[in-house]
Amino acid sequence: MEFIRPSEHNAIPTYRVMDQYGQVINKELDVETSDEEALTLYKNMVCLSIMDLLMFEAQRQGRLSFYMMSAGEEGIAIGTASALTPADVIFCQYRETGVFMQRGFTLDQFMNQLFANSKDYGQGRNMPVHYGSSDLNIHTVSSPLATQIPHAAGAAYAVKLQNQQQSDKEPRVVVCFFGEGAASEGDFHAALNIAATREAPAIFICRNNGYAISTPTRDQYRGDGIASRGAGYGMDTLRVDGNDIFAVRRAVKEARKIALEDGGKPVLIEMMAYRVGHHSTSDDSFAYRQKVEVEDWKRRDNPITRMRKWLEGRGVWDEEKERELRSVLRKDVLKAFEKAEKLKKPAIVNAFAGVYEELTDEAKAHIAELKDILERYPNEYDVDQYEGGLDSLTQALEKKQ
């Protein structure tokens, strides 16, 4: 009789391609990325970083109601998205802005969602940073923690059936992002078990950034991180250095191959990083961690600095290009920001539309009641800030079904 004693086993190793100084560890394998592609990845990471800083400041000025930054985790989102095909389906948590950016979500689209204006895809029905795009095959972000994980498991099973039935099309996988805090939810365990038993082509990516809102990892679990749980569910598992965008890309590319083997199987990847920013604009992380800890990580290692060192080592980047890039991107972000801020809010009728294909009698009664209140108290409600004013409510009531 021999008990398994975790303390007597070595920790799961962390895969990396380059070290924190931007030096490739295995020269024979290199990075499998062209200089041109690497520059695109780098520019997207810098753009994401600049947008984060500007939007954080905008929230502090009262111009946005809420925002969440990706500082320290840019390489995970952008690196993963770059290693997938456009048809692969993605479920994000709330710190995957880089996934949208890498797939082609524009600055205008980001700003429209943040301001919930008339051009927002969600028509103002969701919180800021809860992006979504059917065109890009990315499901809309939702606030409840971990709910996207079982959704992704179900979608992966559906994709498995589609891959079997549509042999003329390129097979797809489903990718799901979540933080290590979400891995403490029951949704995580249920989803991994379903995906494993149904042999669904899913790639579960855990961003282990050290903190679940205000709880450090030492208070979240006693085992060897999140990766150790993959083996328990019979899943191929890997731990990756999330500050190394080349390691992220190679790991996801290989995980995608594995996920499509023998009709499908799930894969778990734990991406190790450090959350440099606050959890959100509603959080003050210095209440539960020392500022010197954050500054040390900023100085010591992050995905943007590491990749810049690699680019400079290749002779394709320098300080002058860096200044020019940051100046141009800052102007682009501010231009999109100012344009979106001036647009009107979505039509008022969107508060009722979209639930059913046609408005129900009950919904029409609610619309009529709201219209009556707005007309009786014009000085109390500014309807001009909404596209069409009261007309959208009038048109909805007059429309024949």
From TrEMBL:
Domain of life: Eukaryota
Molecular function, one GO term: branched-chain 2-oxo acid dehydrogenase activity
GO CC, alphabetical: mitochondrial matrix
Catalysed reaction, written as an equation: N(6)-[(R)-lipoyl]-L-lysyl-[protein] + 3-methyl-2-oxobutanoate + H(+) = N(6)-[(R)-S(8)-2-methylpropanoyldihydrolipoyl]-L-lysyl-[protein] + CO2
EC number, UniProt record: 1.2.4.4
Transmembrane region(s): none
Protein name: 2-oxoisovalerate dehydrogenase subunit alpha
Organism name: Sporormia fimetaria CBS 119925
